[in-house]
UniProtKB/TrEMBL annotation:
SUPFAM superfamilies: Class I glutamine amidotransferase-like (SSF52317)
InterPro entries in the record: Class_I_gatase-like (IPR029062), DJ-1/PfpI (IPR002818), INH-QAR (IPR052158)
An annotated GO BP: regulation of DNA-templated transcription
Source organism of the structure: Luteimonas salinisoli
Protein name per Swiss-Prot or TrEMBL: DJ-1/PfpI family protein
């Protein structure tokens, strides 16, 4: 089964939040004859998006013109503060998350999924500077300040920035098996610790 991986981008998104998971999912597919994932950046339209510190990217897909995502990646960065109050963006994320197999929240992307109530009654993590803010946004979330990756069923959350790479490897391992993820990590010369993810029990 080939899965669509949609990585949400917006103004002032953190670069490694989207570039790291993009690389993990795309290289996994590359190493396996393109069988596993179609990976793309998605935004409201295909206009260039200026990410944190000036990097500009052009989305592959728009909200209205893309296949339904099987894996939805919601990234952070300073722009996530604006994004969590953007009604059209929230409506699209809510719709995409409802049918996605996995939602991967990276860093401050937890603000967005938290604003939608997707972290209620779940264990979750985020960037170490966002915990107090996230607790106010999603008071029913159970924040794991000690965790780099938290697997709470359909919702997987990660700590800050580089932790999104670990989160993406965890999702690949969950969907395709650890040997597939380890092969990608070896190719990328990335020291992925498969034990860095905390499994939260009895969450769907």
């Amino acid at each position: 089964m080939k899965r669509n991986v949609a990585i949400l981008v917006f103004e002032d998104a953190e670069v490694l939040d989207f570039a790291g998971p993009f690389e993990v999912f795309a290289v996994t597919s590359q190493l396996n004859e393109g069988r596993y994932f179609d990976v793309g950046l998605v935004a409201a339209d295909r206009s260039p998006v200026r990410a944190m510190n000036g990097m500009t990217v052009v989305p592959n897909w728009t909200w209205q013109r893309m296949p339904a995502p099987d894996v939805l990646v919601v990234v952070g960065g300073l722009g996530s503060r604006r994004a969590m109050t953007d009604a059209p963006l929230l409506a699209w994320v809510a719709q995409a998350a409802a049918s996605a197999e996995v939602v991967l929240s990276v860093c401050g992307g937890a603000r967005i999924v938290g604003a939608l109530g997707l972290l209620d009654d779940r264990d979750a993590t985020t960037h170490h500077q966002v915990f107090d803010e996230l607790q106010a946004i999603a008071p029913a979330a159970r924040l794991r300040r000690d965790a780099r990756v938290v697997d709470a069923g359909r919702i997987v959350t990660t700590g800050g920035i580089s932790a999104g790479i670990d989160g993406a490897f965890h999702v690949v391992s969950r969907l395709l098996g650890e040997p597939v993820a380890q092969r990608t990590a070896a190719y990328m010369e990335y020291r992925w610790d498969s034990g860095c993810a905390v499994a939260a029990a009895s969450q769907t």
